[in-house]
Amino acid sequence: MGPLRWLVFLLLGATLVAAPSGQLPLRVVSQTVGTDELVLALADPSQIAALSHLAKDPTYSPVAKEAAAYPTLQTSDAESILKFRPDLVLIASYTRAETKALLRRAGVKLLSLERFESLEDLYANARSIGLALGHADRAEALIRTWQLRVATLKMKLQDVRPVRVLAASTFPFTAGSDTTFQDVCDHAGALNVAAEAGLKGHQPTPTEKLLTWNAEALVASGEEGSRVIERLRALPSYRFLAAMKAGRVVLVSGPRMASTAQARLDAYEELARALHPERFR
After folding, report:
1. Do residues 49 and 37 lie in contact, with contact meaning Cβ atoms separated by under 8 Å?
2. How far is CA 32 from the centre of its chain?
3. I need a surface site. Which of 8, 117, 209, 253 has the fewest CB within 10 A?
4. DSSP label at residue 176
5. Residue 119 domain boundaries
6. Residue 154 within a domain
7. Which helix (H) or strand (E) covers residue 166, if one does?
8. 234 lies in some domain
9. Mean pLDDT per 10-residue segment, the chain (281 residues)
10. 3-state DSSP assignment of residue 160
11. Could you tell me if 113 and 192 lie in one domain?
């Protein structure tokens, strides 16, 4: 690979651990749910050797229906991946170090996506995968459709007062800045009170401080179950919040809200409709 192509990959925010030599990859394995989304949108069907072990699970995967047509990994480890004899494996920064090492030792080419927090990260990752698959033009066309959706939503939400929201969960964590939840808030007419308070990433829920954050609505994952609101109400972290007492709890599709790829756009729209229904009538 020449210096210019290496520079392109670095600028796009992806790390090519071992670059394809000459010909396009014919047997691509996606190791993560986020790369499943992108490879399904960008690859020729014949290029997809296998998707992640969670690809067909609608609890985690926003593309479970599309994934049903393809083989999936038994687990996310190197042994499961190598069974599909890949010539390119799509991994992420959070892929286990030992898995990466074993795949490198086996001589497998790896494309590692490093950042996922923002919409710009999504565009960069789509371009990186499109280039690696030989479908750079397909990636650019897809990005244009995403940009149109984002612009259309922005127009609908023009001049709205952001609703103060808190990511609520039966797990003892909330989402601050530098998270996919923050990205959803940024595009859905919402203000993430945890980020406003200085939290970064996913942090333990600071029960004693929540009352001072003045959240107007709680945002939770619909995948936590039909009784999630009841379960949240029973937790000390949320029981006394004005938003909980008023029943202002918004359930958003978990796979969409947690998506590191294009399903995040569905989460933008879903949360925006819930917080600002008057703009969608």
Report:
1. no
2. 10
3. 209
4. -
5. 3-148
6. no
7. strand 163-167
8. yes
9. 38 41 84 97 98 96 97 96 97 94 94 94 97 97 98 98 96 94 97 97 92 96 81 91 95 94 97 97 90
10. coil
11. no
